[in-house]
Amino acid sequence: MEPLPESVSIREVGPRDGLQNEDPVPTDAKVRLIDALSATGVGRIEAVSFVHPKAIPQMADADEVWQRAAKPPRVRYSALVPNSRGAQRALAAGFTEIEVVVSASDTHNRRNVNRSTAESLDDIAALIALLHDAGARVEVIIATSFGCPYEGDIDPARVAGIVDRVRADGADRIAFGDTTGMGTPRRVRELLGAVRDRHADVPLLLHFHNTRGTGLANILAALELGVTEFDASVGGLGGCPYAPGASGNVATEEVVHMLHDMGIATGIDLEAMIEAAALAEEIVGRRLPSGVLRAGPRTRLV
Amino acid sequence: MEPLPESVSIREVGPRDGLQNEDPVPTDAKVRLIDALSATGVGRIEAVSFVHPKAIPQMADADEVWQRAAKPPRVRYSALVPNSRGAQRALAAGFTEIEVVVSASDTHNRRNVNRSTAESLDDIAALIALLHDAGARVEVIIATSFGCPYEGDIDPARVAGIVDRVRADGADRIAFGDTTGMGTPRRVRELLGAVRDRHADVPLLLHFHNTRGTGLANILAALELGVTEFDASVGGLGGCPYAPGASGNVATEEVVHMLHDMGIATGIDLEAMIEAAALAEEIVGRRLPSGVLRAGPRTRLV
């Protein structure tokens, strides 16, 4: 049995990645959700994305949401941007932690942004320069890192090559996205094996979807390899665009529940996170796929 | 990273443990489900239980179900019995693999059968003798091995003591039941650590519920400790009696999907198991909590 980390940093992505994949909700609701999350003790929140409102109407009010949200200084907030226009908006709003995305799968990248992976990598190099000039830090999220719904398996060496490239271009952080829940512990081991030694100095974050039930197993596999940063979405907000009705992001309260029982600290108040999940469920008006929201933590006795 | 087993034996428990925790379904449907499962390549099926029809109406037709089911010789079938009357019925029906249950939690055992754990262990000693005399093999399932919804944590030493006792009384096999999904990888490690060395010669089977999302993570933790036998329920049939709407057993197709991608053989045809899960969903008339049923395996591309 491998030793496990003593603590883990969770980034809550429900307000952005979660709500972006749900039917649009009112600005008020978004602000309430961010404020509830900010009070849970979570250290990081992906708050909004600055994308074109016609492309993603769910984020059309990003500026207002961000302006109205409480921003306690102990929480680090980040925003996702697709291009230089979005980057300028994020900087103007005061964000200093910015995420950009590229898909390891060429097909997936073309479907998403009508450009090849190589073209997007050129765009990202320019974005990193722009954002660094403004004093911001940049995380590159590599989508479909564990498999692509169009192409199937993605060679870990391809993902590692993208890491090499964006690191050379100045990326401050790397995230590996399991965009449609194709990851398994074997894929986690293979991908981390391919990148860990070459990039021991860069913070790596893993972003799992629970589409096929493997979310927490993948996190366990990553913990055993020393990974200490994970994305999670309150209540499991955010479905899977390729499989209507299927689960999306791992639910934050499920991740926290498992980690705490394993003696791994997160700084998060689990009961407060479960309350935030209940709020998220109320906001989107559909049953969210979180077992801990449904059944309560294991410590809640009959 | 720990080496993992090359193959795993799954016991399909949907027809018994699953359907026993759903609203009653017609005899025809049960036979269809068992027959579909028998054709998937799964090596073992828990087919029925011989319990009092007033206590568990879902199993009132156990004799007829078993009589009508196809029984290809490559599948091993088992039945669960609560007492000597049930044991006699199971033997008369031709079963040679029998399961009996006791809860590690005294409170849970009293709620289930109105007897203390110690009293049930005396009953089980007599049942083992009766069944051995008839040439059957006996598995003792220790429920609430990873926590009790009434008492909370269960000391692994208490579970280990129960193993000592039933082994001394002749139990041929031991199963640890995570009856209400309170297990986490930490609990798996602790329990196996407490029993493995003392009982290296007895087959151990783990039975997880996915009530709080940890089902596959627990299986991964157990695989890393060399466990090669798991229960699973097609489609995730069987809810959680303590949390209405919550998930019950781990879904067989989710377990098989993860294992196969990790290069661990099960002998099961995953697509056939997914078809059986669709049949299970049709039979119970409610949406089952299986991600692989919903989204398909990772190899099924858009």
Explain this structure.
The structure is a homodimer of 302-residue chains. By secondary structure, chain A is an alpha/beta fold. Chain A has a single domain, classed as Aldolase class I (TIM Barrel, Alpha-Beta Barrel), CATH 3.20.20.70. The first copy, chain A, contains twelve helices and eight strands. Chain A has helices spanning 14-20, 27-38, 62-68, 84-92, 106-113, 117-133, 156-168, 185-195, 215-224, 252-261, 270-284, 291-295; strands at residues 9-12, 44-49, 76-80, 97-103, 137-143, 173-177, 204-207, 229-232. In chain A, α7 (156-168) links the parallel β5 and β6 (173-177). The longest helix of chain A is centred in the middle third of the chain and has 17 residues, at 117-133. The model of chain A has no long low-confidence stretch (mean pLDDT 96). At the A-B interface, α8, α9, α10 and α12 of A face α8, α9, α10 and α12 of B. Chains A, B: This is Hydroxymethylglutaryl-CoA lyase. Chains A, B: It holds the Pfam family HMGL-like. Chains A, B: Belongs to the HMG-CoA lyase family. Chains A, B: GO terms for molecular function: hydroxymethylglutaryl-CoA lyase activity; metal ion binding.
Give a summary of the structure in a few sentences.
The structure is a homodimer of 302-residue chains. By secondary structure, chain A is an alpha/beta fold.
SS summary, helix count of chain A: 12
Radius of gyration of chain A: 18 Å
Catalogue the unreliable spans of chain A.
none
Biggest chain pair interface: A-B, 54 and 53 residues
CATH architectural name of chain A: Alpha-Beta Barrel
Q: Distance between termini of chain A?
A: 33 Å
Please identify the oligomeric state: homodimer
The CATH class designation of chain A is Alpha Beta
What class, by secondary structure content of chain A? alpha/beta
Shape verdict of chain A: globular
What is the chain-wise order of helices and strands of chain A? Answer: EHHEHEHEHHEHEHEHEHHH
